């Protein structure tokens, strides 16, 4: 790999299309929400609950993309493209198997789960109906994750963007047609979602077929993928427990605090997508370097990506500090909510440079396949920092300042653990198999 391949231009060539893929689903959800919102409060509440459950389930399975990228990138770096694509084949089989299981569970559990969260009634009924249809698409959603994973590993982030935009574009056009003129209401929204997911999945499957690699399932490879998947699922679970706790505490603090938290949290989540696109580029580049047998190159990429991401985080922090008086008013005109926003806003601003480094190193270690360390570091940071402070802030009445102090401590602890790992160099293990993974 030449110097130019780890330049900002090379990084952005991978990161920008990856950002498009990451942003496509949230943007589609906005379209879906706008369409269903005109049906009334109950369908919109049903969509909100069903969509939250769908996202909760699918986000637990992101190892199908991140884990696959780590394994594929190493093989690609070792000059074994056919084997790299074969990892994508096995990840796709795994996606189909897990997706079918989710589909069946949804038919059995959608009603009791929705009623447990919303109580028996029309909202739970609407959510369960939407969820049962939407989760028919679970295999397709997971196939798309696996497809993103192997294509990122071979440093092709443009085709996944095209595939995802094709699927979401059809959904966005079909959704209002099925909801209103056809008259299917909320069910029409779920069916439009299903059609789009099927189109994207079909394109990813076609991409595998044209590679002319064996398409038979290989259970040894799938088992090795699940080893890494286990660690990534636990890591994701730690994130979700923290973020759900923060939302719960904000809601218990008061309506104004909950609304202000939602405004700042959505901005945080959006910027996390932006920074995560750089992390995805780091995964691909670091995995390739280690697969090619070059620790020095992998460490050089890690250092440069971290500096780039830190600089980007500083710029974001400065930009949102300048927008502190203007931007919140775009989201709400409620004076009481706007008065609460600054209690979270300045934590949000101050954490952008920290987030830049944390997300970059996340990408580096995911690319190296160092999932076990990431799992442990995330869970410890949550248990020691975030969760205790979140719930103490409720007991002590610290409000949003307490909640966002907890988030900041969580990020700082993650920063420390990741910097220690980076300094140790123990993550930079060369070869075609990631750290701690079982080679198939």
UniProtKB/TrEMBL annotation:
<feature type="transmembrane region" description="Helical">
    <location>
        <begin position="372"/>
        <end position="392"/>
    </location>
</feature>
<feature type="transmembrane region" description="Helical">
    <location>
        <begin position="232"/>
        <end position="251"/>
    </location>
</feature>
<feature type="transmembrane region" description="Helical">
    <location>
        <begin position="263"/>
        <end position="286"/>
    </location>
</feature>
<feature type="transmembrane region" description="Helical">
    <location>
        <begin position="163"/>
        <end position="184"/>
    </location>
</feature>
<dbReference type="InterPro" id="IPR048279">
    <property type="entry name" value="MdtK-like"/>
</dbReference>
<comment type="similarity">
    <text>Belongs to the multi antimicrobial extrusion (MATE) (TC 2.A.66.1) family.</text>
</comment>
<keyword id="KW-1003">Cell membrane</keyword>
<dbReference type="InterPro" id="IPR044644">
    <property type="entry name" value="DinF-like"/>
</dbReference>
<feature type="transmembrane region" description="Helical">
    <location>
        <begin position="398"/>
        <end position="420"/>
    </location>
</feature>
<dbReference type="Pfam" id="PF01554">
    <property type="entry name" value="MatE"/>
</dbReference>
<keyword id="KW-0812">Transmembrane</keyword>
<feature type="transmembrane region" description="Helical">
    <location>
        <begin position="307"/>
        <end position="331"/>
    </location>
</feature>
<feature type="transmembrane region" description="Helical">
    <location>
        <begin position="343"/>
        <end position="365"/>
    </location>
</feature>
<feature type="transmembrane region" description="Helical">
    <location>
        <begin position="190"/>
        <end position="211"/>
    </location>
</feature>
<keyword id="KW-1133">Transmembrane helix</keyword>
<keyword id="KW-0813">Transport</keyword>
<protein>
    <submittedName>
        <fullName>MATE family efflux transporter</fullName>
    </submittedName>
</protein>
<feature type="transmembrane region" description="Helical">
    <location>
        <begin position="130"/>
        <end position="151"/>
    </location>
</feature>
<feature type="transmembrane region" description="Helical">
    <location>
        <begin position="88"/>
        <end position="110"/>
    </location>
</feature>
<dbReference type="InterPro" id="IPR002528">
    <property type="entry name" value="MATE_fam"/>
</dbReference>
<keyword id="KW-0472">Membrane</keyword>
<feature type="transmembrane region" description="Helical">
    <location>
        <begin position="47"/>
        <end position="67"/>
    </location>
</feature>
């Amino acid at each position: 790999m030449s110097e130019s391949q780890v330049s900002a231009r090379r990084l952005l060539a991978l990161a920008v299309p990856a950002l498009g893929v990451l942003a496509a689903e949230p943007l589609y959800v906005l379209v879906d929400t706008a369409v269903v919102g005109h049906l009334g409060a109950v369908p919109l509440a049903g969509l909100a609950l069903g969509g939250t459950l769908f996202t909760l389930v699918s986000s637990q399975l992101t190892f199908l993309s991140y884990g696959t990228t780590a394994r594929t990138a190493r093989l690609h770096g070792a000059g074994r493209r056919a084997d790299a694509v074969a990892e994508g084949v096995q990840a796709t089989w795994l996606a189909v198997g897990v997706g079918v299981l989710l589909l069946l569970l949804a038919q059995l559990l959608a009603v009791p789960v929705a009623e447990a969260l919303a109580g028996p009634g029309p909202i739970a009924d609407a959510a369960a109906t939407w969820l049962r249809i939407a989760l028919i698409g679970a295999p397709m959603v997971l196939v798309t994750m696996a497809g993103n994973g192997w294509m990122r590993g071979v440093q092709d982030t443009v085709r996944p963007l095209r595939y995802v935009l094709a699927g979401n574009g059809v959904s966005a056009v079909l959704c209002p047609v099925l909801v209103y003129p056809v008259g299917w209401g909320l069910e029409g929204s779920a069916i439009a979602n299903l059609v789009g997911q099927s189109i994207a999945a079909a394109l990813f499957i076609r991409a595998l077929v044209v590679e002319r690699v064996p398409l038979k399932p290989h259970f040894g490879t799938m088992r090795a993928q699940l080893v890494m998947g286990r660690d990534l699922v636990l890591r994701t679970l730690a994130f979700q427990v923290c973020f759900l706790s923060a939302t719960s505490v904000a809601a218990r603090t008061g309506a104004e605090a909950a609304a202000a938290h939602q405004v700042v949290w959505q901005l945080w989540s959006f910027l996390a997508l932006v920074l995560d696109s750089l992390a995805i580029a780091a995964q691909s580049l670091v995995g390739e370097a280690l697969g090619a047998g070059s620790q020095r190159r992998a460490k050089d990429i890690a250092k440069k990506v971290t500096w780039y991401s830190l600089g980007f985080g500083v710029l974001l922090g400065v930009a949102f500090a300048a927008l502190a008086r203007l931007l919140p008013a775009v989201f709400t005109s409620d004076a009481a909510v706007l008065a609460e926003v600054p209690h979270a806003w300045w934590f949000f601003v101050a954490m952008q440079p920290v987030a830049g480094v944390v997300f970059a190193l996340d990408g580096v270690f995911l690319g190296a396949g160092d999932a076990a360390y990431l799992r442990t570091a995330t869970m410890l940071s949550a248990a020691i920092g975030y969760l205790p402070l979140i719930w103490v802030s409720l007991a002590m009445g610290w409000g949003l300042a307490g909640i966002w102090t907890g988030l900041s401590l969580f990020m700082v602890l993650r920063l420390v653990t990741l910097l220690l790992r980076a300094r140790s160099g123990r993550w930079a293990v060369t070869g075609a198999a990631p750290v701690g993974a079982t080679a198939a």
